[in-house]
C-alpha cells in the first residue's frame, strides 16, 4: 500500500459529522459561557446604579447571578470533556463500522457504551433546548428597554411630544421586588441608561450568548444523528446472521 492509499484509508476513518459537531459545540459553549458571564456582571451593575439603590432589594438576585456564573464554569468544563469523549467515540465507531483495521469485531460492552452516549446526548439536547429558551429572556428584556429608548429619541427628533411618559419598570419582570426603589426609569433617565457602556455591552453579549446556545443545540443534534447511526450499524453488524457490508 502506497502513501496515497494509506492517507485515503486514514481519512476514511475520520468521523466528519462528529468533528463538525465538536467544533460547533466548543464554539457555542465558549460564546454562551464567556459572553453570558460578562453580561450577567453588567446586568447587576445596571440594576444597582439605576433600578435598585437599596442593596437588600436585589441581594437575592445578586446571589442567584453569582451562582449562575459558577454554573457556567461547570458547564464549560463538562462540555469540553464531553466533546472530546464523543469525538473519540466517533473515531472508534467509524473505524469499526468501516472495518478499517481488519475484521469487524465488537463487544456487548462497546455497544452498551455507545448506547449510553446516545441516551446521554439526547438528554443533553433536550436540556439545551431549555437553556436556549432561557437565554432568550434577557435578550427580550434588553430589547424592550432599547426599543423604549428609540421611541424617546424619535420623539425628540420629530419634536412631536415629550418622552417623559415613556417608562420601563424592571419590577414587572420579577427580578427585583415591587418595593424596590426606584424600580423604573422614565424619559431622559431611561435614555441615559441606554447610552451607558454597561447597557450596550450587556445587550449585545446576551445576543451572542443566545446565539452560542443555539449553536450548541445544533451541535448536539448532529451528535444525536451520528451516535444513533453508529450505534444502529454496530448493533446490526454484530448479529451472526448479518452478511450485508455497509
From TrEMBL:
Query: Tell me, what's a Pfam family for it?
Result: Myelin_PLP
Q: Where are the transmembrane segments?
A: 19-47, 67-92, 113-146, 205-229
Q: Name one GO cellular component term.
A: membrane raft
Query: Which membrane topology term applies here?
Result: Multi-pass membrane protein
Task: Print the keywords alphabetically.
Answer: Membrane, Transmembrane, Transmembrane helix
A molecular function (GO) term: structural constituent of myelin sheath
Q: Which domain of life is it from?
A: Eukaryota
Question: What's any GO biological process attached to this entry?
Answer: negative regulation of serotonin uptake
* Places the protein is found: Membrane
UniProt similarity note: Belongs to the myelin proteolipid protein family.
Protein name stated in the entry: Glycoprotein M6B
Taxonomy-wise, where does this protein's organism fall, top ranks first? Eukaryota, Metazoa, Chordata, Craniata, Vertebrata
Amino acid at each position: 500500500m502506497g502513501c496515497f492509499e494509506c492517507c485515503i484509508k486514514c481519512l476514511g476513518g475520520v468521523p466528519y459529522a462528529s468533528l463538525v459537531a465538536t467544533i460547533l459545540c466548543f464554539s457555542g459553549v465558549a460564546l454562551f459561557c464567556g459572553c453570558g458571564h460578562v453580561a450577567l456582571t453588567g446586568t447587576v451593575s445596571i440594576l444597582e446604579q439605576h433600578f435598585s439603590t437599596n442593596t437588600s432589594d436585589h441581594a437575592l438576585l445578586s446571589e442567584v447571578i453569582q451562582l449562575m456564573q459558577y454554573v457556567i464554569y461547570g458547564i464549560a468544563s463538562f462540555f469540553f470533556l464531553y466533546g472530546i469523549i464523543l469525538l473519540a467515540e466517533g473515531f472508534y465507531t467509524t473505524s469499526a463500522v468501516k472495518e478499517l483495521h481488519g475484521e469487524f469485531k465488537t463487544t456487548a460492552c462497546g455497544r452498551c457504551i455507545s448506547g449510553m452516549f446516545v441516551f446521554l446526548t439526547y438528554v443533553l439536547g433536550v436540556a439545551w433546548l431549555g437553556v436556549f429558551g432561557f437565554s432568550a429572556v434577557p435578550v427580550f428584556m434588553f430589547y424592550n428597554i432599547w426599543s423604549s429608548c428609540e421611541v424617546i429619541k424619535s420623539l425628540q427628533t420629530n419634536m412631536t411630544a415629550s418622552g417623559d411618559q415613556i417608562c420601563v419598570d424592571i419590577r414587572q419582570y420579577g427580578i427585583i421586588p415591587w418595593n424596590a426603589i426606584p424600580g423604573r426609569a422614565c424619559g431622559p433617565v431611561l435614555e441615559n441608561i441606554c447610552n451607558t457602556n454597561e447597557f450596550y455591552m450587556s445587550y449585545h453579549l446576551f445576543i451572542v450568548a443566545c446565539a452560542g446556545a443555539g449553536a450548541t443545540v445544533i451541535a448536539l443534534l448532529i451528535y444525536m444523528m451520528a451516535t444513533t447511526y453508529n450505534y444502529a450499524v454496530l448493533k446490526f453488524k454484530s448479529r451472526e446472521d448479518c452478511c450485508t457490508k455497509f
